[in-house]
Amino acid sequence: MLKKVMFCVAILMCSIFAKAQTVDSAAVFDSYLDLNMAMFEGNTDNAERVAEQIMADTAALPPKARINYYNILGKLYEERQPAEAKVYYERVVAHVPNFYVAHLALGYIYVKEAEDNEKKVKANSTTDTRWAHIATVKKAIAHLEKAQACDPNEDTMNTITSLYKKMNDAAGLAGVKASLGALSKNCVDLLETQ
């Protein structure tokens, strides 16, 4: 009899513990809405706090809201933690490849990385540092071209031109117009949330 009671108590405790571990999707979505409101109001401190609360439970968000959440994280981290922002923006463009706003942000993050790599190349030019620099410049160009194709901007075009010139890539520079034409299809400027 004692074994049966102990077994029932163990089952009850396990079910209580399992219920405590279950994520409340509605609560996570409410927090996501709070995050959007904080971003709309420009309250980045509150937005960061709410974003961190959601972090462990992102799987509970609907897929489109999750992509928007990653985009918000990219915006929050862009200035102070660009490497972290890059991770989230890459997730966004992986799911919505034509969302040019994330491409623009990524392009300029890679430009900054390329500038840092260029300093490393000047300080210690090895095959590895040169290749890392070239790879970063190519990533910057790819993202900036998508953004430029969807939302033409003189500053972005000047940056693209400058990057091609620094790489001595006359063929790439000559092909920019054709590339932009091909990339201008199916541009997305707003993410869906549901």
Description:
With 194 residues, the protein is an all-alpha fold. It is built from ten helices and no strands. It has helices spanning 2-21, 25-41, 44-55, 63-77, 82-95, 100-123, 127-150, 154-166, 170-174, 176-183. The protein is globular, with a radius of gyration of 23 Å. 29% of the residues are buried.
Sequence-ordered SSE layout with sheet pairings:
Layout: H1 2-21, H2 25-41, H3 44-55, H4 63-77, H5 82-95, H6 100-123, H7 127-150, H8 154-166, H9 170-174, H10 176-183
Summarize this entry quickly.
The chain has 194 residues and is mostly helical.
Features:
194 residues, mainly alpha, 10 helices, globular
